[in-house]
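Q: Hi! Curious about what Ribonuclease P protein subunit p25-like protein looks like structurally. Here's the sequence.
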Amino acid sequence: MMHYRKAENVEKELSKSDLPFEDCMPKTQKDFLWMHVKGGTKVSNVVEFAQAALNKGEHRCVVWSGSGGGVVKTISCAEVLKRSHPVYQVTRMAYTSVEEHWKPQMEGLEEIIVTRQIPTLHILMSLDELPDTIDGLQKPNTSTDFWDGGGAQSHPRSQPRHQQQQHQPGAGSGGRPNKRTRPGRNKPGQQHGKPVAEENLPAS
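A: Let's find out. The predicted structure is below.
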């Protein structure tokens, strides 16, 4: 590829029929709002737009989609939205076709087009209740059980620090660990309180 330079990337435009939500998509496509998230998308702007649409009753369902650099922001948008609205969530992965165009830098060479499949994240969030039979269904407020105390009590790091210190081995009655004598700290002949031997002292 030394005689080529990379040109533009052309991503295939998805339609609503390409979304992987055949078992939970609203009956009519106009019943949901489709938000495309990219790497340069400002999360606060798109979330406020989706919140306004739900509050006004314009839509009952929102779908977030992002690929490449937009995957992380897609997750952020969904996490922020479900803090303000009790939604049912379904998260699924799909693939999108991207064409890479390579332009020749020498005469007699033709343009090269490489087609790649990149993973795309889709998150469906609905105000209406969805059936329990849907694979990967997450009900409203299910992610907050741990912070409410349901799972935090069993975690060892959730105990107070003074309780963890009580279980440390070798602790004395005062709660402080016993000191260990380090080898090599005392000089020869001075261990255990013994005086220095006078064998090598010069005779008077």
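A: A fun detail: The helical segments are 43-55, 71-84, 161-166.
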